[in-house]
Amino acid sequence: MQTPAIEMKGITKIYPNGVVANKDVDFSVDYGEIHAVMGENGAGKSTLMKMLFGLEKIDKGEVLFEGRPVRINSPAEAINLKIGMVHQEFMLVPSLTVSENMMLREEPKKGIFINRAKAVEETRRIARMYQLPIDPDTRVEDLPVGMKQRVEILKALYRGARILILDEPTAGLDPKERVRFRNLISRLGRERIVLLSTHIVSDVEYIADTIFLMKDGKLLHQGSPQKILQVLEGKVWECLLPPAYAEKLCTEKSFPIVNIRQEEENVLLRLVSSQKPSEDAMAVTATLEDLYLYYFSEEASL
Q1: Contact at 8 Å (CB) between 81 and 75?
Q2: What is the enclosing helix (H) or strand (E) of 108?
């Protein structure tokens, strides 16, 4: 059996105020795969990723890198293991140019001076390599959000990242940038591990090989999208109802309502229920959005 590239075993993180961010989390990932760590805000997914990058201390549990135990006590140690992270709040220096940010603390030298021409050349080279064109001389503060994210990703790749962690990567991106982002991640995932920490279903439904579903600091499910959707098999319904009855179902809140749409004089409801909610309800194929709302809706009770 092949040894996974990264294993996290029994990972627990409890803050001094008693908040349990993670509790006995186990998972493993390998190269050539895109993994989504999904859950609502506060589920513990970002803390888990920060521990893997050395930004948070693990209180209990261990990390294995290619089969050997490692302690990652700082981002520098993570980078030495070829782990890179792009944070939700970008870690770029706004007043510096793209190339200056790219080479920060690793600036090419010409004698005792920084070789700025070499920094620009290296930035262009890495941008061409990954098909992510960008102007090396533009100040970061003048870039739109999507381009800032591009710089962060290029910076991690320049430092040799083979495990790329992206925390809430599409926050602030417009629809076109989201599509570009997904296409980029599909390319990058062919040769490395990509870990996406997100609560946005559309970020992952077309590109994730594996989904880790987290809630209250614990791992609820893990597996391919097809596998984890099996829990909802035969439980997602669409029904066309008179407005009064539709309103009654919505008010009772006995199960998650996924979608409500007015259709002429009736209302089309999409909902999750273990029992047929009305006589003319039709079972439909479950989606990741259905699953997400099932687990993270206060009204869920199957």
Answers
A1: no
A2: none
